[in-house]
Design a protein that fits this description.
By secondary structure, this protein is an alpha+beta fold. It has three helices and six strands; from the N terminus they run αααββββββ. The N and C termini lie far apart (about 125 Å).
Length: about 180
């Protein structure tokens, strides 16, 4: 009987050890699952943050684009007014005794157009007797003059204009070479 008793505790010990191993294996499996899920959650959080940052950047770009469109919304109309202003200036250059009264009305209209341009932040580019700047001017004619520095604007053939901080129309000029 003593032998049986010895055998039984060993068997009991063996049966007790087996569930502990299973628990350890289950615990290890659960820990691995938790690690995997934690990694997946971290990856999804990172992905979500990236998407959120992209959306914020997109929103900022769109706001900047809308502001830019609003800022320069009148550009095409103002360019059209420049052409009309040029025509009035040409007509006013033909003033003589016969048409002086007739051109007085033209002067008033031309002044109104210039006031509209000024009210919309359109400014004439002052380039006469200045160094030639290809960003603001287009050299149409070059002419050699001994008494004038090279690349100096000699004559403005067509006025150039700035609209706010942008070139609305480049000036066409004669430049010394």
């Amino acid at each position: 009987m003593n032998e049986d008793k010895k055998v039984m505790p060993e068997e009991e010990t063996k049966t007790i050890e087996v569930p502990e191993k299973k628990k350890k294996k289950e615990k290890t499996k659960h820990e691995e699952e938790i690690l995997k899920l934690t990694e997946m959650l971290g990856a999804e959080k990172e992905k979500s943050m990236r998407i959120q940052a992209e959306m914020m950047n997109f929103k900022k770009r769109k706001e900047d684009e809308v502001l830019n469109i609003r800022k320069y919304a009148n550009e095409d109309i103002l360019k059209s007014l420049l052409a009309i202003s040029d025509n009035f200036e040409r007509a006013l250059l033909m003033e003589n005794d016969e048409n002086r009264e007739f051109l007085a009305g033209f002067k008033m209209i031309h002044t109104s157009i210039l006031n509209i341009l000024e009210a919309n932040d359109v400014k004439e580019i002052d380039c006469l007797n200045q160094t030639f700047d290809p960003a603001l001017e287009q050299a149409v004619i070059t002419e050699h003059h001994d008494d004038v520095a090279e690349n100096q604007v000699l004559e403005v053939l067509q006025k150039g204009y700035m609209y706010k901080d942008r070139v609305l129309r480049v000036a066409m000029v004669k430049v010394s070479n």
